[in-house]
Write a structure and sequence with these properties.
The chain has 3 domains: 101 residues, no CATH class; 220 residues, Thrombin, subunit H, CATH 2.40.10; 110 residues, Roll (Pdz3 Domain), CATH 2.30.42.10. It is built from 7 helices and 24 strands. The strands form 4 sheets. Strands 15, 16, 17, 18, 19, 20 and 21 form a 7-stranded antiparallel β-sheet that branches. It is globular.
Length: 456
């Protein structure tokens, strides 16, 4: 049974001496039989999981950023911990884990949310990183084999139905399982306006262990550092295992889908996800209107910018224009950097996500009627105190070559000198060392390999 921990650490044959020794991975006749045995075990252990071999063998070496890292290390005596766990338990039967394979090598693993089902199929929302090509992340490899681990631990085959590389979302289909439930993605009301007052829970599931993971947090008042301005961020700290997993409120309502970053967790909000799913059904892809603007929520801008605007228009809200691209529809309509967009087609704007949701929604109606995509915007110009309206004739562009969001890569670190380390002796000549928050990868025999790949 695997431990729900973080790092993989391997030590040489001696469990008592802490010494650093480099070994060759070659097949030289004078190679140490201990190291040769270690190499064979590591190859059988790591390569099927898509992990790199270490460049050298050193006491205390350990792997970080693997797909088995758990999250949610709250104090189990804490009242907040109990509330977070209760929220996770309520939606646990709609949370699965997925992995993609090329042959017998795993390429990616993440979490997914069952969002709907029909008479014979269920749909899972997850991250498109699951099916990105390893050599060209602007493309997907639709020939990859996808395996889905259900909440009861069983494996089933998944099939990629649709994806969008701009928003990095994908939908995977599996056969119908009556014991599973669905997350309320399509039916719940608008949530983003009141989101700032909500406590949030990020939920994930490990692929190998099947472990349910959860951690709590709140919304952050700043945009994500990733190159998609529709993303929001929360303080819920997850690992790679939680990519593609649900972010929910304490009321159990679906708030968004999580991605992974170093300091905070970006997520794609529910309102944008709904539009993408509707576009999948209507057009077979997400139709992205392009206005040629880079914007942000005015309330999230720096204080000096807000002070300048407050001098001309006190107590105003809206969308702040950070950049206007030359020759774009926005530039042609007269919009400048520093302008504030207060309305789009008569709808008051408070968040950047509302702006993107509205333009995605309008494309649904316009494309069906084969009309120009015209947007009416109300604008405040703090530089001269003017207010005016403009019409932006948006273009539909191919956004598929966007947003290669970084995923932390598994790597080996040396050595562990933490006094919290303890040692677990494995069959000679290998000693596996584990620390608090570490993870021991067991070697797979042939029968376990077949089970791992869903071949039994």
């Amino acid at each position: 049974m695997m431990r729900n921990n973080q790092n993989t650490q391997v030590e040489g044959a001696s469990a008592t001496k802490k010494r650093k020794t480099s070994y060759s991975n070659s097949n030289r006749e004078d190679s140490s039989p201990v190291v040769d045995g270690l190499t064979r075990i590591l190859r059988r252990n790591l390569l099927p999981r898509g992990y790199p071999m270490p460049s050298e063998f050193t006491d205390g070496m350990h792997m970080v950023n693997n797909f088995e890292e758990s999250f949610g290390d709250l104090d189990d005596c804490n009242e907040e911990y109990s509330k977070v766990n209760l929220v996770a338990l309520r939606i646990s039967q709609s949370v699965v884990s997925l992995a993609s394979f090329k042959g017998r090598t795993r390429l990616f693993a993440c979490t997914g949310t069952i969002m709907e089902y029909g008479p014979s199929k269920m749909s899972i929302l997850t991250s498109a990183s699951l099916v990105r090509c390893t050599k060209d992340e602007n493309k997907t490899d639709e020939k990859l084999k996808i395996k889905v681990r259900l909440p009861n631990g069983k494996l089933t085959e998944g099939k990629l139905w649709n994806y969008d590389l701009y928003y990095t979302i994908a939908v995977v289909k599996i056969k119908y399982f009556p014991e599973l439930s669905t997350a309320q993605i399509h039916n719940q009301g608008q949530s983003n306006v009141k989101l700032s007052q909500s406590k949030l829970v990020a939920v994930g599931r490990g692929y190998e262990s099947g472990e349910l993971m959860a951690t709590g947090g709140t919304l952050l008042y700043k945009p994500s550092k990733l190159d998609c301005k529709e993303l929001m961020t929360s303080t819920c700290k997850i690992t790679k295992a939680g990519i593609g997993g649900p972010l929910v409120g304490f009321d159990g309502n679906f708030v968004g889908m999580n991605f992974c970053d170093k300091k905070e967790t970006p997520f794609l909000p529910i309102n944008i996800i709904r539009k993408c799913l509707k576009h999948f059904d209507m057009f077979g892809r997400v139709v992205q209107p392009w206005l040629g603007l880079r914007i942000g929520s005015l309330k999230h801008e720096k204080l000096d910018i807000r002070e300048q605007i407050h001098g001309s228009f006190s107590n105003t809200g809206g969308i702040y224009v950070k950049e206007v691209f030359d020759g774009s529809p926005a530039a042609d309509s007269g919009i400048n950097v520093g302008d504030v967009i207060t309305k789009l087609d008569g709808v008051d704007l408070f968040h950047a996500q509302e702006f993107y949701e509205l333009i995605l929604g309008k494309s649904e109606d316009i494309l069906r009627r084969d009309e120009e995509m015209l947007f009416k915007v109300s604008i405040l110009r703090p530089s001269n105190g003017l207010t005016f309206r403009a019409i932006v004739n948006a273009e539909v562009v191919d956004m598929s070559r966007k947003n290669r969001w970084p995923v932390p890569k598994a790597e080996w670190l040396y050595p562990c000198t933490d006094d919290r380390c303890d040692e677990i002796v494995a069959p000679d000549p290998i000693v596996i060392r584990t620390c608090e928050d570490s993870y021991y990868l067991p070697a797979l025999d042939e029968s376990e390999l077949r089970l791992y790949y869903g071949e039994e």
